[in-house]
Amino acid sequence: MSYAGIDLAADPRRTGVAVISSGSPIRVESVIVGADDDDVLHVIDSAEKAGVDVPVGWPDPFVQLISDHAEHGLTVPSSTGPDWRRNLAMRTTDIKVRERTGRVPLSVSTDRIAYPALRWVGIEARLRAEGVDAARDGSGRVCEVYPAAALSCWTLPSRGYKGTGSEHRRTEIVDRLSVLFPELSWNGHDHECIRDDNALDAVVSALMARAVATGKAVGPPEGISEIVRREGWIWLPMP
């Protein structure tokens, strides 16, 4: 079996997909940038667990707001200030990530991350139609991950590694991942991860899928199971 990582962009040309082996050593079997929906479906179908770097749901209050607004039934809010808007913008898991890492995930309600999230909605529907368990809490085949936050939890560089001109930063991350995971064999794919941050994020997503599958990641706390089944849960490494 294998673990997969998907750095899902709205544009397939910028979508990274990585597959790593489930045994020891951890071997990076493949890395591609330029994955369409069929490619994503195939890698999830073939994996024991797949980590997807994309919000898999929206905040409950935001969903309710849109529904009420569409039906002209929104109760007058006591305020439309920052606290009210923040409650609409951030999922429960986003708040938990901020509490642990200090990083504020992009809002799937208000930021451009909504575009890849919309793409994921269609992919999730296809998975369900094929009988694949794509539960948003990560209990099925798929788990939501956040590579930059995972790197932060591992005390690795987590900022300034995206885009052109940041190859030196990605080189540092690749080198330090090799130290953190001494059993990791890049199998020649380290060069692609240094060249393209989408490839690197896909490998980190696959490593997080492995962590989730082997009980080395933090799942949702008790009492919010119904919420995360709708909104999703970002899995982070164990402290």
List the helices and strands and how they pair.
Blueprint: E1 2-7, E2 16-21, E3 26-33, H1 37-46, E4 49-53, H2 60-70, H3 82-89, H4 92-101, H5 114-129, E5 142-145, H6 147-153, H7 167-180, E6 184-185, H8 190-195, H9 197-213, E7 217-218, H10 225-231, E8 234-237
Parallel strand pairs: 1-4, 3-6, 4-5, 5-8
Antiparallel strand pairs: 1-2, 2-3, 7-8
Protein name: DUF429 domain-containing protein
Organism: Brevibacterium casei S18
InterPro entries: DUF429
Flag low-confidence runs. Answer: none
DSSP strand content:
15-25%
Number of strands: 8
Number of helices: 10
Portion in helices? 40-55%
Order of helices and strands: EEEHEHHHHEHHEHHEHE
Q: Domains counted in the coordinates: how many?
A: 1
Structural class: alpha/beta
The shape, in one word, is globular
Text of the CATH class = Alpha Beta
CATH architecture type: 2-Layer Sandwich
Overall mean confidence score, pLDDT: 98
What Rg is obtained from the alpha carbons, in whole angstroms?
A: 18 Å
CATH topology: Nucleotidyltransferase, domain 5
Largest sheet: 8 strands, mixed
- Numbering strands along the chain, what is their spatial order in the largest sheet? 6-3-2-1-4-5-8-7
**N- to C-terminal distance:** 26 Å
Task: Write structural notes for this entry.
The protein has helices at residues 37-46, 60-70, 82-89, 92-101, 114-129, 147-153, 167-180, 190-195, 197-213, 225-231; strands at 2-7, 16-21, 26-33, 49-53, 142-145, 184-185, 217-218, 234-237. Helices cover 44% and strands 15% of the residues. Strand 2 and strand 3 (26-33) form a beta hairpin. The protein has an eight-stranded mixed β-sheet. The protein starts with a strand and ends with a strand. It has a single domain, classed as Nucleotidyltransferase, domain 5, CATH 3.30.420. It has 239 residues and is of the alpha/beta class. Helix 6 crosses helix 9 (197-213). The protein has ten helices and eight strands.
